[in-house]
From TrEMBL:
Keywords: Iron, Metal-binding, Monooxygenase, Oxidoreductase, Phenylalanine catabolism. It catalyses: (6R)-L-erythro-5,6,7,8-tetrahydrobiopterin + L-phenylalanine + O2 = (4aS,6R)-4a-hydroxy-L-erythro-5,6,7,8-tetrahydrobiopterin + L-tyrosine. Residues 1-24 are annotated as: Disordered. CDD domains: pro_PheOH. GO terms for molecular function: phenylalanine 4-monooxygenase activity. This is Phenylalanine-4-hydroxylase. Residues 1-297 form the Biopterin-dependent aromatic amino acid hydroxylase family profile domain.
Amino acid sequence: RQLNEQSGEAKKHGLAADDVQPHRPDWTIDQGWSNYSVEEHAVWRTLFDRQSKLLPGRACDEFVEGMKNLPIGPEQIPNFEALSEVLMKKTGWQVVAVPGLVPDDVFFDHLANRRFPAGHFIRKPHELDYLEEPDVFHDVFGHVPMLMNPVIGDYIQAYGLGGLRAKELGVLDKLARVYWYTVEFGLVKQADGMRIYGAGIASSFTESVFALDDLSPNRIGFDLERVMRTHYRIDDFQESYFVIDNLDELLALARIDFAPVYEHIKGLPEHQPGTVLATDRILSRGSGRYHRQKQEI
Ligand code: HBI
Ligand code: FE
């Protein structure tokens, strides 16, 4: 009965409906590390190997450094307890297992307390490049290395704290865009060029090439109000990426009060994902070819 109830609740939220393990009130579950099958570990290895070949020279230095110091390797799906032990010492973060997407307020509460909710399941061999819900590869390979960095750790915690407030103010969509265009799809300038720090890119074989090398997307200097007003794509590559000059830029973002910013942009027009504005600091103007071709099909 409890199982049915949970799956009913999950469906209502559009959340992990096929997951059968009962979750705690805070939506966490046991990772159940010993239950992963040989096939599941093999999917991890496939994803790990191809991404590890691709990321040198593409992922930012902080990502590479974080990865180097974590118990994340090709052989097995990482154990969350082992990850938490290392993270806790470095930045005070933990990784907790969840069935998939969790309700916004639950998600924010975990982040506000420096617990990163990670999907415990792994994608199937036939869906290596596309999945709707964050799985263990996206969450652990993409996000956890960045949580070894104190600035990112503080920034993501601030997002959790800000999320609860934004929800009350009815501006969660604005805050979610900031998260999307930084934590998930952010690019950063480093000494030898543009690099990836967003987990959505770092965990995607195809997008880690598209975001940096393709002529199609726009790459625009990050501006808080601009990003808050910009819609994003959840089903495909981004049409625009926003670029910070340095990860420390996020430190300032973690500290400022967003309330006056929400107030300032209230009622102003919103921008479509591919729009370029006269006021933008354009690093590269995209051809738009990729998304235009898709439309024609
Ligand atoms: N749940 N597990 C998980 N991971 C997310 O990234 C996540 C979530 N629930 C809500 C959510 N993200 C976002 O929609 C909020 O950041 C707005
Ligand atoms: Fe994510």
